[in-house]
Amino acid sequence: MKKVVLTLLLAAGLSAPGWAQTTFPNNGVADERPNLYAFTNATIVVDPQTTLTNATLLIRQGVIEAVGTNVTIPAGTVVKDLKGKRIYPALIDLDSDYGMPEPPQGAAGGRGRGMGGPPQYESNKKGPYYWNQAVQPEVSASLLFKANSTKADELRKLGFGTVLAHPHDGIARGSGVLVTLADERENAIVLREAVSSHYSFSKGTSTQAYPNSPMGSVALLRQAFYDADWYKKGGNKEQTNLSLEALNKLNGLPAFFEAPDRLGILRADKIGDEFGVQFIIKGGGDEYQRIDEVKGTNASLIIPVSFPQAFDVEDAWDADNVSLAEMKHWEMAPANAGVVAGAGINFALTTAGLRNKTEFWANLRKAIEYGLSEQKALEALTTAPAKLIKADGQIGTLQKGKVANFIITSDNLFSANNAILENWIQGKQYIVTAQPTADLRGTYNLTIGNRSNLKLNITGKSADKLEYQVVASDTIKITPKVSVANDLISMQVQLDRRNPGTTRLTGYRDGSTLKGDGDLPNGQRITWTAVRAGENVAKADSVRPVRKPEIGKVIYPFIGFGNPEKPKAEVMLIKNATVWTNETDGIMQNADVLVQNGKIAQVGKNLTAPAGAKVIDGTGKHLTSGIIDEHSHIALYSINEGGQTSSAEVRMSDVVNSEDANIYRQLAGGVTASQLLHGSANSIGGQSALVKLKWGASPEEMLIKGADGFIKFALGENVKQANYPNPNQLTRFPQTRMGVEQVYFDHFYRAREYDNAWKKYNSLPAKEKAAAVPPRRDIELDALAEILNKKRFITCHSYVQSEINMLLKVADSLGFRVNTFTHILEGYKVADKMAKHGVGGSSFADWWAYKMEVKDAIPYNAALMHRQGIVVSINSDDAEMARRLNQEAAKTVEYGALSEEEAWKMVTLNPAKLLHLDSRMGSIKSGKDADLVLWNNNPLSIYARPEKTIIEGTVYFDLQDEDRKREDLSKERARLIQKMLTAKAGGTQTQRPTFRRQRMFHCEDIEGVMAEGEEHQEAEQK
Amino acid sequence: MKKIVLTILTVAALGRAYAQNPPAAKPQAGAIALTGATIHVGTGQVINNGVIVFDKGIITAIGDANTPTTGASVINVSGKHVYPGLISPAATVGLQEYASVRATLDFNEVGVINPNIRALVAYNTDSEVIPTIRNNGVLLTQAMPLGGTISGSSSIMQTDGWNWEDAVLKKDDGIWLNWPGYYSREFNFEDFSVGLRKNSRREAAINSLLATFSEAKAYAAQKTVTPINLKFEAMRGLFSGASNLYIRADYAKDIIEAVKFAKEAGVQKIVMVGADEAHRVASFLKDNSIPVILSPLHRLPNRQDEDVDLPYKMPGILQKAGVTVALSYNEEWWRTRNLPFLAGTAAGFGVTDREEALKMITANAAKIMGVDNVVGTLEKGKHATLFVSKGDALDMRTNVVEQVYIQGRTVDLDDKHKRLYKIYKDKYEGQKPLAEKK
């Protein structure tokens, strides 16, 4: 035992620290060393642009003193001859959690309290901090940092020398610390503290209820930035808030944002734009899927080299569960870095996201094989990250004065045969691959005891990867088991097949001879020698021509039925159709409609097609304006921010998902525009996104420019959590319809005071204004004040007459108008009051009975409201029903006997009016947007289906083209399946097909609380 | 005559100020003849300007304009359409009222093996949903239990009757089995996603089912058994052919295995229910003469890459493959009134014609459920369970049901929705409504 301890101490004591321990006492005598090393005869890659051959690198005390081909080596230098070897700057990873504390167990996703407990509405972090636990800019990675030799070693082996570490927890995560991966005291390896600031959309381990949605995260971050500004301008006189103080201090540092995917990058950048910050954004490795938009952000990126596993697609039926998008991403992910580089985007690479860090090199080489240049790869691991954190004066290259962080390699760093031999960090050596003391490759005459006619062949691609063979005769070739450690050699060989048994030989290298003694199987001790007889003629690997792998095309959106080319607007003339104008012309027979520049140019008879126009024969067909869905939840990542009674601050435009299959499915049902609403989990929901269903466009392009702002309100059972199964969770105010009224008064009174405070402040004379503390910008109250100022409009989820009446009275008393009641299933009971107030109604055609508050819902509702003069639309609130809103509109003919023309307006012109878009949409009139649907039949007929769906003159759905599209899709699937089968046969690890069902949202869905597939529950929760 | 009948109906509706369903209809008092109608027989045949005569609840004659109507009260329904009562299989109508109110839900019993559970006795003829589906032409509904692996037995109910004994057309027509799926749904608490993975406990579940069926079959081979096993008693019909085995399964592999299982277990009549992937195993279904009750067509494709209209065109695919298809609204009780529109959708998406689509909610359903001797088509000797629609009943605009007869009984067309409509129409008319906006 004592000996063991001594050995350990010896190991520690032999290596003197590579840095000065000036402030630390010393147990023993002083051991200051010059740490002066020269590496000679090396190929030195000083930086990605500069390679020196036969050069020397001189380092002293952990810093590069000289590099070049003409370096004078001072006396007292340890000289290492690196002939045939290369030196590169050590690599840098900017997205590391090295040395950071592990997040508390079970706290993933901020739901550590479990599903059963009461929601925690207030922060449980004690101290003068921000109100929300997920905002913790005061966290300083340097205070948390603890070196960890195991993890450091893992990264050193990959060639990394420096990392930027920060705790990956929360929406505002504080400042990052730049550390080296040396095994030294933290004092030495922290190169710089507070290097950077870090943000994300994920609340991390926060147990607080808010936010529970991505749009809530965005809103929270926005508000925090505004609060910091307020704090700086005088808020600090009102309160002490270390979080806001910290947020202000972080201002100006390189700011990093962790985004989950390509659309997350766009979202993060949008936030940055609002606050004049250009985030450096960590992406998900799928940037190639929206490369133009990603480039458009001008953000520098941090990109992972983690690639999805192939799927096991051997079973033809099971393989159906793997989507085209998943298969294509499997194929294309390795090309991502190359695409990003090719687009001219500045980026750094990271090991983050790898299932296993040891996959790093294999994956990086794959990325190079798929089109990333070696030079770009090296930049992305050295100079680019160094510049991003403004540490290029310290790290990233091997220029004089920089930290002596470098790696010694056997070959080109990116070559498959390369071995990283040593990683020097701050001038201290870490051996990565033990180098053989000599190259043993060659042919030897082997004598074992009295057997002398043996040969030993030692071969291998490199001196450290050897293969052995003992040749007894031309026909008998034996593979022995050999291990070599420094100059010691140990070999076991089964020499004689007739007398089985292992001969064990141990010995050493003596010059070019190997020798020693050993035991025959029978225990007889013998001596052995292997005398080198010749060089091994290593067959050079025939150089495979490096061919970039062939891969499929990116499609927009990146999902089945996406298009390789984004569709374009056309000039077209639709001739001789039955045209439902929704105007005074009514339903015109044998009419023509001319579309130009995305607009309806002309409506009439016998129009002439301009040159180059596409002529579409509408004979026997019906042409209508596109269906507008007033109440939709498709194409969104999330629906409800239910963490608070009011979430007026959240914007659905922050979470538009342009890659949702339901967009295409609804185009196939004639829908061209939708209001994407917040859910109904709280009395005051979030701000709507008004979109057109431009399949393939980015979220930003889908948004309708210049549209008025809308906001979702909600009443009744959902708001008061009437159908929550767990009584423990019923603590949020309000729990009754009585309380709902008070929520509104409270919020609107506060908004009015807030608005007045701003008005007062803004009207101050310049001098006084400069001296005054501006009111605190509150984005929740902003939205509510906009309602009071008639600049934002309410769509209110509502069912029973009492609550409808209540909100009308609240609005009346505050002097604004409710724009629309949605669902409004008892609207027929108060239709007179609604008409008087001037509110519209957007309803289901025939839904009822799914909960108590819809027990009096009747399918005649729309007709009754319409006859009282209310603008009525029929909406879906359901991804499926939206595909046949024409049928739902037709039900108003059955129930209430509306005319077909009026019925049709319920899904076109009337929703356009409710959304204040009727000057641009909702009817076929010259000058309006060319959002058109060509039907095979009367659009209200059950037998009708769209043949073409056109948005702004661009055909997004074409029944004629549909067969080809489906065939292309199945061909592409087949190609990828064959490729995956080949990959599996080649030994690639595969994953089982897991059928991920997309969640379908209705307005009551709170993220995570209800999972897709629980259909009966979904039906109840409309 | 027609006017008189209609007036009586209207008066009845007007006179009722209380919020109750209309009373059950009285037995047919005398022969009735509907003349001048477009009669959709349900066999695929359409009789233009046809006549249908029924007495004591039974169709006594059907044919062209020359069909004698002697002795019958003649109601001229020229320009209108007569249809066999639509049949809604696999439904929870009568078993649930308000989905969010547990007290009103009676279709899902606890336990795993519940063949003895009978939906019949929970069927509430006073459900306010029933008149609303009847008034769109759905005159028969199969009350179906859900839950567990073997859910219980269903019964075929008329949408008219004072109580379940009155309303029932066929008691205990079949046992319902939720097939242990090839995939099971797994909820991931880490990322709150749901994935379908291969069901690791499936073999065990199937083995235990097989044991249950083997024992039930052995039990059924004996006439009387002591002590009585309620579960096995309930399963006797499966082995004699007296009752169907309705198996819910969607995935193609499940469909094949479930059918193989049932055959091996000695089940005589097998019906697949749900069957989202039936198109994949259409020839298997045809070869084995297995009929299918499809899930509501008005659903989304199950997978991203599936044809966007796959659910809509499913009936057409199966029809062309020679599979007997019925359409259902499943447990979506109140939506059942839209059953005719599912048939309309099927006709719009590939079923050869409207009459074939109509069969999927009449004759085919009757045949599958073993009630085709009395309902499902308008043929002499069958029940006068039929309705008159203003126009094409498969289209929303023209599905305006003007007369309903169930076993010849003249059914009151009032329902909660019409009552509320009338009440509020009257209210606003009394107030002098605002000018109708254009």
UniProtKB/TrEMBL annotation, chain A:
Instruction: Identify the stretch annotated as signal peptide in this record.
Output: 1-20
Q: Which Gene3D superfamilies has this protein been placed in? A: Metal-dependent hydrolases, Urease, subunit C, domain 1
Report the GO molecular function annotations.
hydrolase activity, acting on carbon-nitrogen (but not peptide) bonds
Bias-annotated ranges (Gly residues)? 107-117
Which Pfam family name is an example for this entry? Amidohydro_1
For this protein, the record's SUPFAM superfamilies field holds: Composite domain of metallo-dependent hydrolases, Metallo-dependent hydrolases
The region called Disordered is annotated at: 99-118
Q: Does the keyword Signal apply?
A: yes
Q: Which InterPro entries match?
A: Amidohydro-rel, Metal-dep_hydrolase_composite, Metal_Hydrolase, Metallo-dep_Hydrolase
Task: Tell me what this protein is called.
Answer: Amidohydrolase
Q: Which UniProt keywords apply?
A: Hydrolase, Signal
From which source organism is this entry?
Arsenicibacter rosenii
Keyword Signal belongs to the record = yes
All residue ranges annotated as the Amidohydrolase-related domain in the record: 340-416, 863-941
Q: Which PANTHER family match?
A: ALPHA-D-RIBOSE 1-METHYLPHOSPHONATE 5-TRIPHOSPHATE DIPHOSPHATASE
TrEMBL record, chain B:
Which Pfam families does this UniProt record tie to the protein?
Amidohydro_3 (PF07969)
Boundaries of each Amidohydrolase domain copy?
Answer: 353-411
Q: Which GO terms describe its molecular function?
A: hydrolase activity, acting on carbon-nitrogen (but not peptide) bonds
Extract the signal peptide range: 1-19
Q: Which UniProt keywords apply?
A: Hydrolase, Signal
Q: Does the keyword Ribosomal protein apply?
A: no
- Quote the protein name from its UniProt record: Amidohydrolase
Give the source species. Arsenicibacter rosenii
